[in-house]
């Protein structure tokens, strides 16, 4: 097992400079590829977020429009109810005014020195005044 440790032949491995350039070109192409992929990913992300932003804005606008319509309908219903209430109160008031006019005509016709109906007339006048004040408040609210 005795083997001499001499090199059988000297082989010099000479490397050419071209493979080094090939490696550099490969790295450049890989770098450019990764850069292109990153740029395309960023562009895609931006386009997607813009699309989502537009979609969300459209949904919010639609929801807002629906809510505004609901509020407007509710407001119109309340106005209609208030008008009905005021017209009903005016009808009642007209009835009381008519009865007051009848009472005034009756007291005028039947007035003499012995009878005094001023207290009853005063009470009815106060009721009419209170109702008129209430109707004025309702009309102010309506306006």
Q: What do you see in this structure?
A:
By secondary structure, the chain is mainly alpha-helical. The protein is 83% helix and 0% strand. The chain is built from two helices and no strands. Helix 1 (18-110) packs antiparallel against helix 2 (118-142). The radius of gyration is 50 Å and the shape is rod-shaped.
In short:
The chain is mainly α and 143 residues long.
Enumerate the spans where pLDDT stays under 50 for 5 or more consecutive residues: none
Number of helical stretches of at least 4 residues: 2
- The arrangement of helices and strands along the chain is HH
Strand content: under 5%
Largest sheet: none
The helix fraction, in percent, is over 70%
Class of secondary structure makeup: mainly alpha
End-to-end C-alpha gap:
121 Å
β-strand number: 0
The rounded Rg comes to 50 Å
What shape does the CA trace take? rod-shaped
Q: What would the average pLDDT be, to the nearest integer?
A: 82
